[in-house]
Design brief:
Layout: E1 6-7, H1 19-24, E2 31-38, E3 42-50, E4 55-62, E5 74-75, H2 77-93, E6 105-112, E7 117-121, E8 131-132, H3 140-150, H4 157-160, H5 169-179, H6 181-188, E9 192-196, H7 197-205, E10 212-214, H8 215-218, H9 233-239, E11 248-250, E12 253-258, E13 270-276, H10 277-284, E14 293-297, E15 301-308, E16 319-324, E17 333-340, H11 344-352, H12 363-368, E18 377-379, E19 397-399, H13 407-433, E20 440-443, H14 450-460, E21 464-467, H15 472-482, H16 494-501, E22 504-507, H17 513-530, H18 541-552, H19 554-575
Parallel strand pairs: 2-6, 6-13, 10-11, 14-20, 20-21
Antiparallel strand pairs: 1-4, 2-3, 3-4, 5-8, 7-9, 12-13, 14-15, 15-17, 16-17, 18-19, 21-22
Bound molecules: adenosine-5'-diphosphate (ADP) and SN-glycerol-3-phosphate.
Family: Belongs to the FGGY kinase family.
Pathway: Polyol metabolism; glycerol degradation via glycerol kinase pathway; sn-glycerol 3-phosphate from glycerol: step 1/1
Pfam families: FGGY_C (PF02782), FGGY_N (PF00370)
Length: 576
Amino acid sequence: MTEGKNLPNSSADVPFRSKELRKQSLIQHTGLVGVIDEGTKTIGFSIYTTPDFKEIAAHRVELSVITPQDGWYEQDPLEIMASINKCAEEAIKQLPDQGFSASDISTVGITNQRETTIVWDAVTGKPLYNALVWKDIRTSSTVEQILAKVQDPNHFRNSTGLPISTYFSALKIRWLKDNVPEVRRACRENRCKAGTVDSWIVWNLTNGALHITDVTNASRTLLMNLETQNWDPVLLKTFAIKEEMLPTIRSCSEIFGKITSERSVLRGMTLSGILGNQQASLLGQMCVKPGQTKNTYRSGCFLLCNTGDKPVFSRHGLLTTVAYKLGPHAPTIYAIEGAVSVAGHALSWLQQKVRLLPDSRDAEKYAEMVPTSGDVYFVPAFTGLYAPYWRQNARGIIIGLTQFTRKNHIVRAALESICFQTRDILECMHQECGYEINKLHADGKLTTNNLLMQLQADTAGLPVFRSQLMDSTAFGAAMCAAQADGINLCKFEPEKRYYENVHYDTFLPTTTDLERKERYGKWKRAVERSLGWVIKQKNTREHSEENYRMLSSLPASIFLISSFAMLVHSLAATAH
Ligand SMILES: Nc1ncnc2c1ncn2[C@@H]1O[C@H](COP(=O)(O)OP(=O)(O)O)[C@@H](O)[C@H]1O
Ligand SMILES: O=P(O)(O)OC[C@H](O)CO
């Protein structure tokens, strides 16, 4: 936990400041819901009233990231648990001021950063290694090994909806098995458990009684078959992962069990919701109809478009994923997703590494001091590019610098890069799903930046609806836990809730088609220049892709070589 980095409670609209006020309220509350929101950068615990879903207490802390090498991102699993416990304690301390107490919390939900993988010893309960964070690219060599077997990065797309990439948990588990002796030993002795962060949290909160995950998190492992929603035997075999290590896959909303950990102030409470944080914000944004699309702007950007009860498979680099399943017998709703690895992280980089910004929150002020980015383009491909490019060999570039370029232009270009990357994905979504996406729902910390929202509308040519509920993620997870069968704090009535509680600021496009086309064309040229920069890592997927391309053109190569041999032979024959 980062000392002194407790973050302010963001519940801007605290409804009940005292018991008296609470009594005066007309709303008949049915109980409170607590949400553990475990993000890459921030961990929080929020408490909501039901059925009106007002956040009445919250505590957040920043989580440290360990970067032992370039492209390696780790987090301490013990710090994750300590932070969750601390946040829950602090949030619960705020309840009496609102006229509530801990015993009013009827249930708890979890939402978490996805793909990030933890392995632990089932006997001691201790982690066997740090968590490998979703954006860690150390598994490039593992990707290469797998590609050597299956050749095509899209080999598992039909079964999982995902390409073979460093991003997903299967690669991380396999890397840990191959490279960490303690993990290998624990696997041999059948003591090794593996899972995404939700599983680690549940295991700890239930003293090892439950090893579960939900279908949204499972759909990001590259091990779950989208059709059966079970671990796929072919994939387990390909990645040499034993099913016994993995959690049982459950729905997002059902009574999972009780919290029993004596370390947690939540002891005795029920757990009834789990879902990945991007799926939670899709739900929190009430994108429940096919075609409804949201983008969450945080360290990364994650655009999800609801595709209803049918998975849509991508031909252009988008991921097919489970959006939610609100009960064991509820239908599975799918989404198509475009993930951007570096969004707000580019601003943190400008702040912490190059010191162009005193704070990432100042980005708006700095960028507003110039009317345009002065033709500067910033492609923040720090660890390659995710959707729709999926190129590990890309690296960041800032292009178009002149002697007139000031730091403000670069900051503005960083903001624009977030918008252009979003447009890249929107274009794909349109081609892939055929949905006419006519507005974009926006949430996440970065959306406090008004200029970013306006630039997004101007870049995409779409109205942007910014949720006033900045934390749609926790809100979505709260609804999910509250509506579980047996908890019944609310019915899931998206249309109703949508208008009652969630208010939006709208940003309308102010650019012409021509302007957008021109600027987007330049962005594409900049992206083109960032690709293929890493050539020394012959260990990478691109290398295998190169091999694959060479292999695919093998008949042509054989033809050329044999023609050359015949020519040499005939020349030699003529000479004699
Ligand atoms: N007010 C703000 N203006 C601009 N950027 C912000 C603001 N607040 C946070 N950020 C950016 O958002 C990212 C962190 O968002 P957060 O939701 O805490 O992270 P995470 O998605 O990693 O859990 C950081 O990369 C930071 O640069
Ligand atoms: O915690 P965030 O907002 O960076 O979300 C991370 C994503 O879930 C990774 O896929």
